[in-house]
Amino acid sequence: MENLILASSSARRKELLEQVGLSFDIYGPDIDESVSGNESVECYVERLAKAKAQAVLAQFPHTIVIAADTSLSLDGQIIGKPESKKHAFEIWTSLSGRQHEVLSGVCVASAKKIISCVVSTKVEFQTLTQSDMEKYWLTGEPIGKAGAYAIQGYAAQFIPNIIGSYSNVVGLPLHETLQLYAKVMNNG
Q: Would you call 164 exposed, middle or buried from its count of C-beta atoms within 10 A (0-12, 13-18, 19+)?
């Protein structure tokens, strides 16, 4: 059996794959994550997932690689990670009382096969008060998170509804990832 590598240094993705019993090594590739021109969120996350997988596969050609990229979309715009407290508050103000999409591009690759997909989950945010935002910022949880929140943490209290994959919002849609993994394993 070929070794499996998770092309990510995300603790959340690591935990999700461990949750389903996979054994793997971790190698977080350094790739350019700039948005290309008028690239849609769907194309962006899939392109980055493929780039991560291919970068790792180039260094470890006798492995199977799982790579992913997750971004938030609001009104067709990519909502990234907060650069500061002010930026986090701007993100939360835009998400407050609205529904947004969390999109993940997933790529599973081997020397013989590279397949990918994009998974979308709709997330509803309650209306946030200034006090909600202040308290949440003080937890430290929003730092380094797309959309400045983690559904599996303190922010769960702000999310009354999701439509789609919960694990996608955490950072890796498990069902779809395992389907792709099985196809690569079975077809080499």
A: middle
Q: Rounded to whole angstroms, how far apart are CA atoms 67 and 89?
A: 30
The 10s digit of each residue's pLDDT in 31-85 is 988 888 888 999 999 999 999 999 999 999 999 999 999 999 999 899 988 999 9
Compute, in degrees rounded to 10, the torsion defined by CA atoms 101, 156, 107, 71: 40
Q: Any idea of the CA torsion for 166, 144, 106, 7, to the nearest 10 degrees?
A: -130
pTM metric for this prediction: 0.91
Catalytic residue positions, numbered: 69
Residue type for 123, please? V
